[in-house]
Amino acid sequence: MIKKAIETPNNLSFEQFKKTVLSDYKTALVSRECSLLGRREALMGRAKFGIFGAGKEMPQLAMAKAFKIGDWRSGYYRDQTFMMAIGELTAQQLFANLYGDTDIKNAPESGGRQMNNHFATHSLNEDGSWKNLTEQYNSSSDISCTAGQMPRLLGLAQASKIYRHEKGVKDFTNFSKNGDEVAWGTIGNASTSEGLFWETINAAGVIQVPMVISIWDDEYGISVPAKYHTTKENISEVLKGFQRDENNKGYEIFTVKGNDYPALINVYEKAGEIARKQHVPVIIHVTDLMQPIGHSSSGSHERYKSQERLDYEKSIDCNTVMREWILNYKIEDNEGNTLRFVDSESELEIIEKEAKNETRLAKRNAWNDFKNPISKAGSELLVLLNEVAKNSKNSVFINKLIEEFKADDEVQARTNLVYARKILRYLTEEDFTSKITLQNWINNYKKIFKTRYGTHLYSESKKAAIKIKEVKPVYKEDSLKVDARTIIRDNFKEVFSNYPDSLIFGEDTGYIGDVNQGLEGMQEQFGEIRVRDTGIREATIIGQGIGMAMRGLRPIAEIQYLDYILYALQTLSDDLASLHYRSAGKQKAPMIIRSRGHRLEGIWHSGSPMGGITSLLKGINILVPRNMTKAAGFYNTMMESDDPALIIENLNGYRLKEKQPTNFGKFKTPVGVIETILEGSDVTIVSYGSTLKLVEDAAIQLRQFDINCEVIDIQSLMPLDISHDIVKSVQKTNRLMVIDEDVPGGASAYIMNEVLTTQNAYQYLDSKPLTLCSEPHRPAYGTDGDYFSNRSTEDIFEAVYQVMHEYNPKRFKPLL
Ligand SMILES: Cc1ncc(C[n+]2csc(CCOP(=O)(O)OP(=O)(O)O)c2C)c(N)n1
Ligand SMILES: [Mg+2]
């Protein structure tokens, strides 16, 4: 019997094992060579920046073996070897990404939008529809923020759990096969200091999801050694409390050396099995890793590592250790023959040479693919510029620029544009055909790159939020006026009956049906998987939503109070808001964030940080319904869409009465469309959310003084008034006031900018445009705190009156 080299479930024969080992060695070598050459490319200026996975090749080969079709990765910039080993990254693509090639066929990670080594596979077809994700390897699109990949990892893993246990989604076979998919996370040792790491680890332990998280430990985070990062300088040591035992659920934790090939293969095989079969999370602490070329192209580690440390790192380099291991490996079969991977070192030298040559060729090909279209455009432009120079009175200046252009060796599309645009300036006084050709050339070239860099912030599919048509609520003649919270509740019940893939979760969301009873009875009706309580951990609540939505579910993640969204803002901004853009439309997470905010009773329960939200969350639809019927309509719209949205209900609106519609689940509030709720001819007042009630009251009182306000509910802060209806109102009233309860310079400034400059309302104004906002401090506690911190009906009345007084002091005598 042949003694097996290592225990593998596949029972590899020696020949098979040998083939695998040598092929792995080659992948490690190609990957290393990419790192070495890539760094050089960045230092030479062919790439803006370069970060690579050198020194961490071997564990990634092991991880790739345990990673199965349908599985997911959520990792970081060191994982190039893994991506190569699963066949989702070639050396040529690595270089194309490094150069920032904007052709997504060459640079599939992001089509030039992301720094290199921010990996992503394509979940979507050209039209934005889902691919069959169970038939491919999946890598969620990386972000640069350390530990930012963790919240999403939780959701990616939890999706398997839901697909395994929730009967309603059994037929969603394009997304899961019985929940057998594992979500594999990777993170650097230093990044485990981030709160997001701990929050995710705890949540995954509580929920028990199929997640395997690898910690690549090279004892450094850029220049800072472990003693500044980690208690006891040992992350698996401090994670020990998470280890499961006979009485308690928890994690399976492994520690393994990153240069021990057989041990790594065994650990990863086991980890994959545990997570896949038992849905138990696993941590693998991979030690003894290093960085042969330092952190990134921005610096050199010789500056902060001692010679002793550098020598030590060299001695543990996994690629050299693997080489030694291959050379020294021998076993005997049962006939006494000695079996080896190679008979002599020269066999390895051949592989090493091949790896070098292949990588060099890949680099050259990627560079040519990147360079050729730019050079070709440059050559065309040069012909045109010479023609222009021939015709122009300013040929002396133009020829000088042409010479500079010819000598400029920067290979960037902008180089072409810089010279073309500078030369155009010399032609302002002239008129000839090649000038027009040059103008057209500039416009067309700009358009190409606008498409390459400027698309896919939001969905461009037929399910884009702005394409979902309005359906009005239907009322019976004798429709009752009911507590508004029941409108939210009854609508959610309908949504959950119509969408078996919908889920809602958050703090107090499950058992009690949310703090305002908007989900009353939902858990009983739809079960604990779909209507669920979570821990107090806003960032990972959002992460759950992102990961699940990326895997085809329709999560609604609750942030209990809008003020606490700040805990999740990093994940929302860096991950969710940028996902569709940074993957060039190849990944999406159509989740809804449900929250409630605005006026109530104190510094943290009255907030309306809308300016921050609109600035930071471009890429997410920001919806601010003025009542619960409008809110319910937004949920119905967004469930049909493949865009993400934040829907903010009014905290003080749940107990107000609203007429009960009959078409729950069907009526839809349109996104990006304003509603004029009062018509008038003197002042256009633009507002949203709970402030609108006060604006309406003030407007009614102003009528008694013969001042007619046109009151507009923006409804949707992002996108805002896509058909430019506000300017039509200003055209009529010639006066504009934006009122909200955000701080001065917050959302009101954003709205004002849109109306004045995007919609060009400035040209119709007879009075100074005004914003009326809260005080710059947080809203103080209680009724008086609100009255003196936010704007009241009286404040609004007086502000509008003052505008009219300035316009016609005789008719509107001073008030105060
Ligand atoms: C939130 C955040 N802070 C700082 C940085 C800058 N930064 C990038 S990588 C890095 C060190 C990460 O070290 P580690 O997690 O050990 O990963 P390694 O690079 O060593 O593999 C830092 C500080 C960042 N990208 N994100
Ligand atoms: Mg590190």
Which features would summarize this protein structure in a list?
816 residues, alpha/beta, 7-stranded mixed β-sheet, 6-stranded parallel β-sheet, 25 helices, 24 strands, globular, disordered N terminus, binds thiamine diphosphate, binds magnesium ion
Uncertain segments: 1-5
**How do the strands line up in the largest sheet?**
13-12-14-15-17-16-22
Please report the total strand number as a whole number. Answer: 24
Count of runs of 4 or more consecutive helical residues: 25
Helix content: 40-55%
| Classification by helices and strands | alpha/beta
Shape: globular
Bound molecules: thiamine diphosphate, magnesium ion
Instruction: Calculate Rg over CA atoms.
Output: 31 Å
* Major pleated sheet: 7 strands, mixed
Fraction of residues in β-strands: 5-15%
Q: How widely separated are the two ends?
A: 102 Å
State mean pLDDT (0 to 100 scale).
96
